[in-house]
What we know:
Blueprint: H1 14-19, H2 26-33, H3 37-49, E1 52-53, H4 56-68, E2 78-81, H5 96-106, E3 113-117, H6 125-128, E4 139-143, H7 145-148, E5 157-160, H8 162-167, E6 173-183, E7 200-210, E8 225-232, H9 233-246, E9 251-258, H10 263-267, E10 279-283, H11 289-298, E11 304-308, H12 316-324, E12 333-335, H13 345-349, E13 352-359, E14 365-372
Parallel strand pairs: 1-2, 2-3, 3-4, 4-6, 5-6, 6-7, 7-8, 8-9, 9-10, 10-11, 11-12
Antiparallel strand pairs: 13-14
Amino acid sequence: MSLGVPPRLVYDLIPVVLGSDNHWWPLDYVRLSTVSKEWLVHVRRKLYSCPLLLSFRACSLLARTLRERPNLVQLVQGLHLQPIYRAENEGRALAASERADLRYLLELEGLRSVKLGGYLSIRAERFLNLMANADTLEELHIDGSLLHESAGTFSPSLEWDEYTTYRFPNLKKLRLANLELDIVAPYPSQLAQCPLLLTELTLENVDISSGYLSSILRDSSQLKILNISAKTASDFGEQLGLVLSTCCIDTVRYEVQEDCFAGHTIFGLDAAAMTSMRCLDLKGLNMDEDLLGYIGSCCRKLERLTIAGRTIHVCAGGWVRFLDSGALPSLCWLGIPEGTSVPPFKHGMGRKWSCCIRQHRDEELVCNCQQVV
Length: 373
């Protein structure tokens, strides 16, 4: 290399550089796009693959850009639309131009992932109905967290009926958070015509005001992962129990923050569908040996069981008896908390326990318990 000639980056390494860090900021991409045409090509794919828009003005600007440069439309595979108003514009109606821009974005072809938040989480079904090409959508996320604590007139909500199910035939992942869910039960004759073929369902702080979750997941043989996080178990225990009794789910993660005495409502059912469950993660439930017995009788094929929280009424001997009973012959991993704030750990023992089960080559289960003073 001759002196005075600056080093040049091999263009083939540009995708490697952009993919080496998942924490690039949009402004970083904008600066890199000005380096050269070669950088611009790859940066555009990053910038437009799934834009995050937090204001109606940003939505309008993106819509204008895509209208003026149609070649960029094919780069858009997802949209995160979470517009909110400033305080001085709180409560004003959408302008006609803003509605037109939102409609344009939601009607884009080839969208695989969409997240609606902010003011679009208020009666979110209105904006779902704007999606003219919803058959390509695989992931849908509706999050009302930006408005959940506000004192506005309207709160985040979603109405789900058989028409909504019919519009998303290829939906694989559905995540709903911080909103009120109204489920309109389909007519019996429409159940087979409107299957919801989800593989993963996540509900975080969702209040089901009417209807049953099992009515839209009925006979769903493809649902593999169910994640539920709720404030009170008494309100959601029946919903979860009905889902577990109708769907064969591989992995269930259930977390509650208050009112934790509803574990028997979930596992007290005579549900043959639970026998296929392989991974169970419970946090915040009031756990005792009776509930462990329910789990052992309903979920015989469990391979991983994790129990967390501060209301565990099972002593070290109780865990040993549960394992020695052979209730879960396929169990390979058991995770329990290091301590609780209720007896028996509070009085008498005063120690933290951790238990790990590993499966050896000879298929024998070995339990290693460690006492931490």
